[in-house]
Amino acid sequence: MKLKEIGEFGWIDRIRGGCLIRQDTILKGIGDDAAVFFTLSDMATLVTTDLLVERVHFLKNATSAFNLGYKAMAMNLSDIAAMGGEPREAFVSIGIPQDCSIEYLDELYEGMKHLAAEHRVNILGGDTTGSKTDLILNITVVGTILPSEVLYRHAAQPGDAILSTGFLGNSRAGLHIILEGIPIDAPFLQKLVDAHLKPRPYVLEARFLASLGGVHAAIDVSDGLSSDLSHILKSSGVGAQLVAQKIPISENLKRFCARFSRDPLEYALSGGEDYTLLITVSPDREKTVREAYEKTFETPLFLIGWINDSQRLEMVDPSGALNEVTASGWDHFK
Amino acid sequence: MKLKEIGEFGWIDRIRGGCLIRQDTILKGIGDDAAVFFTLSDMATLVTTDLLVERVHFLKNATSAFNLGYKAMAMNLSDIAAMGGEPREAFVSIGIPQDCSIEYLDELYEGMKHLAAEHRVNILGGDTTGSKTDLILNITVVGTILPSEVLYRHAAQPGDAILSTGFLGNSRAGLHIILEGIPIDAPFLQKLVDAHLKPRPYVLEARFLASLGGVHAAIDVSDGLSSDLSHILKSSGVGAQLVAQKIPISENLKRFCARFSRDPLEYALSGGEDYTLLITVSPDREKTVREAYEKTFETPLFLIGWINDSQRLEMVDPSGALNEVTASGWDHFK
What pLDDT digit, counting tens, does each position of B198-249 carry? Predict the structure, then answer.
């Protein structure tokens, strides 16, 4: 079935179901010129927005519609998490090419709604329109946070420990498997592909960390460890020393790299879209924060290096040598 | 100059200037994973978002970059106005094809910033990315309003007067002049083109009307009078009777229609993108509201018909006959 058979307003009626999953504080969701809702008193408001364009950010035949919707929502939730915040309301703009079926779009919305509902995020509105060539998806998410708990990029301090909530480089390996058409003949390959297609945002973890005290700066790994950490360094006017042997590399990535003669460290440093959180924690709180995190989530919080006042990003390699790391993550225009 | 010469982050540094025009309540604008700000206490928050795609909503050679930016911002401010609200923060996502020059983008942002600054709206963030073919622009605007003053589509009541803040059909005539390549050999043709390319949002007027008391429902004319009024009727479960002779048609549109043998009423009813406000006002307040409005803004508030309980949209034509009006505005998929 094509959209023109049901029209723009038939379509809007179709997607409404499952959008509003938390009624409190909402005065109006989908169906007016703007959504109307209350923010929580004494809280600061967070807003993030991400634009995905077919053939730039995704290929329709390389992912399912469900996973595309899921990932688009995940990227935005991850941005709210990277501030330490709680995501609350989402707005979806979609530009739909004529040949796109309603069944495809239903699946896409299912993916978005599934992850939104998991985090109790409402879809309160958006814009639905046509597109000549490419499918276009822009999501805006509004979140909330206590002003004293915001984790800014500019708040890292010399002496801070640098920690990652998860493994790095998996998503990039998954992307290579997809782009190079490598047959998925083992479960570990599928897991790497899943890390790319269906990343999980560290929303609960971020709220926990922001409320602990002692966590200074945060960012999510969207462009790559070296690039995203560089944003913290530049914003904070500091430097950092990473320890190569401490950078968390999954067994799956190690197996992938062994089989295809790749360097896992290179994947971990410059591979993007892991959506793990990088945080910096004051040295006197580092042990407490790690222990509390590991007890609560039963998963490690990886210590990967330290902030210093050098203004440079360096790494101690396995031989003990100190090398400068260049920010080699993703730049959309280079 | 091309974007790849300065890169994504050079570009973000470039557009920062003129984005933050009101510092109070802002904790963080451009430059982190999300913007952080305070909303006003006891106020409800409004969010609207609009997606513009090249070759669907605009042709690059039919408008200037400045006017494109201006109009994209105007459409969003108009959506906040249509709720009676005050726009406060804007977020701009842009997908940029490789052949797009920095000079073009500078002009585009100038257009957005110009109108945003005029209404004291900050640009607090967004997303900048590539696009394979078409220029893509998605703007999200966050506004504020007293909960008791929100003008919902669903709030029209039988007996209400229906009023328009401005002339209808000008924008559609301007579009026809552009698309048909009609030479602009008279000022009235230029004015119609301007109405299409650089519509003005009725932001101050909306705030004034929402705070007066007695104004029930509102919508802005983006798809066309018949279509947008139908949204109010459907949402409110009511009908309406328009009076053909009262529908505000500008002298410019009359001259255009006379010269090109068109029906001005047809333009007024089904032409979109005028971005005038349609409001419904309780009968006992209609005269007071109109007089207060006209005294304040020194421009008429046009009475064009009445809400009734018929569930139909009808119009009294100049001969006195009553005809059903079909909602014939814009549907993006039909």
Answer: 999 999 999 999 999 999 999 999 999 999 999 999 999 999 999 999 999 9
Kindly report which listed range (A4-13, A200-209, A264-273, B280-289) carries the lowest average pLDDT score.
A4-13
Task: Tell me the nearest-neighbour CA distance from B91 into chain A, angstroms.
Answer: 7
Which of A31, A82, A124 lies nearest to residue B33, judging by beta carbons? A82
CATH of the domain at B160: 3.90.650.10
Q: Report chain B residues whose CB lies below 8 A from the CB of A334.
A: 4, 7-8
* Residues whose CB is less than 8 angstroms from the CB of residue A119 and which lie 6 or more positions away in sequence, other chains included: A77, A87, A201, A203
In a domain, residue A331? The reply is no
Give CA angle at B236 (B332, B207), nearest 5°: 80
Cα A210 → chain centroid: 17
Closest CA relative to residue A35, chosen from B76, B234, B45, B236: B45
Asked whether residue A74 falls in the same domain as residue A166, the answer is no
Give the nearest chain B residue to A94 (CA atoms): B51
What is the rounded average pLDDT of the residues B134-152?
98
Which domain range does residue A22 map to? 3-148
Can you give the CATH number for the domain in which B9 is found?
A: 3.30.1330.10
Residues from chain B contacting residue A50 (CB–CB below 8 Å): 93, 127
Per-residue pLDDT reduced to its tens digit, B16-45: 999 999 999 999 999 999 999 999 989 999
Q: Are residues B130 and B26 part of one domain?
A: yes
Average of per-residue pLDDT across B242-266:
97
CB contact under 8 A, B51 and A132: no
B143 and B11 in one domain? yes
ipTM metric: 0.95
Residue B35 CB partners (closer than 8 Å, separation 6+): A46, A47, A48, B26, B28, B29, B89, B91, B124, B125
Residue where one domain finishes, among candidates A114, A148, A182: A148
A83 DSSP 8-state letter: T
| Residue from B40, B47, B150 to probe the interface with A (highest A Cβ count within 10 Å) | B47
Report pTM: 0.96
Same domain, B117 and B69: yes
Mean pLDDT over all residues of chain A? 95
Say if the Cβ atoms of A89 and B27 lie within 8 Å: no
Same domain, A127 and A217: no
Express each pLDDT in A132-149 by its tens digit: 999 999 999 999 999 999
Cα distance between residue A232 and residue A90, in whole Å: 26
CB A279 within 8 A of CB A151: yes
